[in-house]
Amino acid sequence: MALESMSDHELRQRFEMLKGVEHHKNDLILELLSRVDRLDDSYQQMALDHQRETQFNREGQLRERKLQDELRKLKAFMNRDPFVLVLIDGDGMIFEDNLLRKGELGGKDAAAALWNGIKDHLHNSLPDIPSDCRIVTRIYANMKGLSEVCWRASLVEKASIVEDFYRGFTGSKILFDFIDVGPGKDRADEKINELFKLHLGNFQCQHIFFGCSHDNGYARLLEQYTEPMITDRITLLEGVPFEKELYAMKAKYSTAKIETLFRSTKINVYNQPLYHSSQSLHQHPLQISSNETLSPPIPNGYQSPYQPIIGTSTPSPAPSNPSIMNPKAPTWASAATSAVQIVSPPATPTPTPSTLASSTEIPRNVFGQRIDPPTIYDKDEVDRVRKMKLCNVHFLRGDCGYDPCTHSHNKKLSKSEMAALKTVARMVPCRQGSACDDLKCMYGHRCPISTPGKKDCLFGENCKFERDLHGLDLNIVRTTMIGKK
């Protein structure tokens, strides 16, 4: 339509229409420009983030590379000088008789057999341990007491042969050592426990072979460790069969037995007549009241110092001269510092514990087992005294070594309270069993509720006392007098 033919009103309508289109166009352009600005800001932010991440990744890679280098060095350091520890309680893990009798040469043979046995076990059962891993062996025992017991049980001709044996054992391998802990109760146990704990956390110690099958006391140590990553690093060495508590927890650990190396039976010195010559044993001879000299028969069993074994045959009546019986059970920890004297009973009836001088004498039955004096049991009084948290060692022995002690030392006890405290202490089994010759020992040496002749009690298998501490003959036929020469 020609503009000339359009009226003013039409022209204005077309103008308004064009103006609206232009307005929408301008709005679109402004919106596009605003979006471009936002995208540019986002891009710049993402670029900064990318730059930061790139820098972080680069630093992380450098840090990772440095840590890997340090880890390689640490692994190389940890794998340097790896070793396995063979830790043995020599008071109960005893080498075979034929090795002991050979003295120094037998010690060398025993060291070689132990080394080969451990090497074979590592190769067959622990292949992850490096083949160049060294074997460190520590045997702890009371040399003087051990030598005396072996001599008294006629395992060796003279006590010095045992010393020669361990001299040969120590000298045959650079890392094999026998450590003489000297006399004293639990000295070997304490050292072994601490060394065990020390090396269990040592990364260079690849494995621990623990020779402790004879002593339930080590169950207290082992029961602290239940995680497989720890128990897998421990192998229990077997000599004599595992005691009850150790046997119960044996499934958690691997076990090993080196044949023909350690004795599998315990020394039994109770049924051996005592032989004695003019030669002194370590300057502390066994004094017997008879001048008769007897030849020792060959022992038919082995007895560790912690659990006496009595023959299965019916015991014969007490001999008229009890001085020929073995006066001292194999408590090696105290053998070296004491001289033992047999006191022959008078021709009067069997003495009772009340007639004994408890400060110097220990009552024993026909088998040489220690017989605890009777105690008066008042349940209410015992329960009351238990709640008082008294220090048994302080009141009953007078030599508490704890400072500070967690139990009371300050109370003044009546006679009934002292009697109840003795009863409480007597309920705890002595680790030396009926072989104990500690004059001040306050613990129980037989099950207090067992009946003579019966090897069980009301508690059955749950009794804290070993089976051999049940049914003891309570007839006292002699005493062991302890005193320094």
Could you walk me through the main structural features you see in this protein, from its secondary elements to its overall organization?
With 485 residues, this protein is of the alpha/beta class. The chain has helices at residues 8-78, 97-100, 103-125, 143-152, 160-172, 187-200, 218-222, 228-231, 244-248, 332-335, 379-386, 392-397, 415-426, and strands at 83-89, 134-141, 176-180, 205-211, 234-237, 254-256, 339-343, 361-364, 478-483. Strands 3-2-1-4-5-6 form a 6-stranded parallel beta sheet, with helices on both faces. α3 (103-125) crosses α5 (160-172), α4 crosses α5 (160-172) and α11 (379-386) crosses α13. The longest helix is centred in the N-terminal third of the chain and has 71 residues, at 8-78. It is elongated. It starts with 7 loop residues before the first helix and ends with a strand.
